[in-house]
Amino acid sequence: MGLMCRLSLLFVFVSSIVILNGCENAPQAEPKSDTSTASTGPRELESPEELLKKVEQAIEIARKQYHLESDKHSPWEIYHGILAFRKDYKIRKEGKDVNALEWISSGVFFDKEPWFQKTEFGGRAHPYTKSNAFEGHKNQSLAVLAMADVPLDHTFQTPDGPITVADIVDNAKKEMQENEEVTWSLWALVHYLGPDASWQDKKGEEWRMDDLVYMQNATISNDSACGGTHALFALAYARNTYQNSGQRLSGFWLEADQKIQRYIEEARAMQNFDGSFSYDYFFQKSASNNFQERLETTGHTLEFLMMALPDKRLNEEWVRKAISLLANDIIDNKGETVDYSALYHAIDGLVIYRNRMSPDHTAQLGSKSYPKTPTESRTDVKVLKPVQPPAVKAPAPPPTP
């Protein structure tokens, strides 16, 4: 896309961002007991080893305490469970636990509509119909599949025959448009195609992954879904993938990193004394004594931070305080009503932390599995090679007496 096109995109995103489905008014689990939602306040910070145990305990509570059911809960809700627990996530079907990914791949329906559809350009997950039914944002389902690292050849049944993840990727490329939310498209496509990918949409216009990064850089975070945390998470995932490819940050990718660093520090600056993050995300500092509100805002913010922070910062006190607050909140309020979206985004943040800190797990911090294809040398990026100092000759050995 040309310069004028990019400038017009900047105006569109800054002036008006249409959010199809935000973080509010989501279905909630039925309460199992009448427990307090008030924060217990600051508590003594656990050691890294004890904190990891608390995190594991909170993850297991979410896995075992809240069971989504195949005939009761929507695709939007079940996708959030897959986001948190990846390919191992299980739901309840006729009283038995079944693998969620296998079940949604089998040609199931919701509200008399199929979960997946064939299209002119391949296939897709069923698009938005109403709040909290199918996906709430374009390509949101594909981004969840990317986070679960579902392979390109994985098959989904539709009323018109099978489709693969590769078909869904092809459809996403063809349906790309300039005046739309790009968060989940960037997240999904950078995972499956890599940071150097280019393609043509259905109108024949050429796209590069850089274009999606530019568009995401141009969004105003507070105007995006869930305070901009999803947009920042996708940007961090894309940046990590770019760095995984061995390339030096430059151009729009460097701008992405600068934006990520800015919002890391804003999250830290607006953190509350008890370790929770601002109820108003990055807009202003605020606190809440309500468990559900803390779960939503601290959970979403922590999820972004776990994708964005380098390893060396995970043991900083402010990060550990946030993780401790969130894990203990889930443990202390395990009988409380929860918003499934908030719960599973919070758990995703804790899972990423657990996977990064535990030698028994591997964290997915950006994609490494996309097809590696030779790319043309770019003339718009000048890479400065370090000057090599002249070799120092070793002194000659003394003469033998």
From TrEMBL:
Extract the ranges annotated as region (Disordered).
Answer: 27-49, 363-401
Keywords in UniProt for this one?
Signal
Q: Does the keyword Repressor apply?
A: no
Signal sequence interval, chain numbering? 1-20
Q: Does the keyword Signal apply?
A: yes
Composition skew (Low complexity), residue ranges: 384-394
Residue ranges annotated as compositionally biased, kind Polar residues, are 364-374
- What name does the UniProt record give this protein? Prenyltransferase and squalene oxidase repeat protein
Origin organism is Gimesia alba
